[in-house]
UniProtKB/TrEMBL annotation:
Pfam families: DUF503. InterPro entries: DUF503 (IPR007546), TT1725-like_sf (IPR036746). The lineage of its organism: Bacteria, Bacillati, Bacillota, Bacilli, Bacillales. Coiled coil: none annotated. PANTHER family: DUF503 DOMAIN-CONTAINING PROTEIN, HYPOTHETICAL CYTOSOLIC PROTEIN. Gene3D superfamilies: TT1725-like. It comes from Halobacillus salinus. This is DUF503 family protein. Signal peptide: none annotated.
Amino acid sequence: MILSAEVECLIYDAQSLKQKRSVVKRIITRIQNDFNVAVSELDHQNLWQRTTIGLVTINSDKVIAEKTIQQTLAFIDSFPEIERTDTFLEWL
């Protein structure tokens, strides 16, 4: 089973692209180190306070794939400098 998620987020404290990229890079690096998912910034690279992060996991068990993505989303929510606004899940 392949589960992908597109996560749209706002970064309120970012006053420049440099600050935004610092926050996004830190979150992406931590996700790569802590979870069994592929992750990348997908959209809004040139906007200061907005980003879209893509997550993908592959597992033979649908429940485990769902649990992995939900844990990753909860991890993103734990960062006070970023707010998850929309999340789109898709099974492939």
